[in-house]
Amino acid sequence: MSSPKLKAYPGSHITVTFDAGRCLHFAECVRGLPQVFNVAARPWITPDNADAAALAEVVERCPSGALQYTRHDNVAETPPDPTIVTTAEGGPILLHGRLTLTGPGRQPHRENRMALCACARSAKRPFCDNACRA
To answer: pLDDT by residue (tens digit) across 67-119?
Structure first.
């Protein structure tokens, strides 16, 4: 499922993509590797400022799936099995595993991480947009 807000940040060993429309600002990226994820800089993601394996590990902590990566050595994310479902207090339902999103008018879409709306107020349903926190 491509998004008009999807942006790629290529590096020598890994490319990170960011979907601003899915970001819920959990800040796992900024806390995990501030030398790569610097919201005050442009570009704000600089993949070559960290080892590809360390960067992939931090990207995999992104609970919404707004951050993804493609390693140039073809090492892919291995999601947990069974799938982990977590609820955030007053927020989304977080899913981490081998996921397939389907629904009316949608082609099946595979992902490893998603944050789904739990309040039914999101303008981006089934994804959370933090409408419940507004």
So the answer is: 999 999 999 999 999 999 999 888 899 999 999 999 888 889 899 999 999 99
What CA–CA distance (Å, rounded) separates 2 from 76? 19
> Rounded to a whole number, what is the distance in angstroms from the first to the last CA of the chain?
26
| Token reading at 30 | 């900024």
Residue type for 104, please? P
Q: What 3-state DSSP class applies to 32?
A: helix
β-partners of residue 8 are 17
CA distances from 15 to 3, 8, 18, 71, 83 (A): 17, 7, 10, 6, 25
pTM, two decimal places: 0.89
Rounded Cα distance between 115 and 65, Å, is 7
Question: What proportion of the chain, given as a percentage, has pLDDT over 90?
Answer: 79
Q: List all residues 6 or more positions away from 27 whose beta carbon is below 8 Å from its beta carbon.
A: none
Q: Tell whether the torsion through CA atoms of 14, 16, 17 and 22 is positive or negative.
A: positive
71, β-bridge pairs: 14
Query: Per the omega criterion (within 30 degrees of 0), is the bond before 43 cis?
Result: yes
- Mean of the pLDDT values across residues 56-71? 97
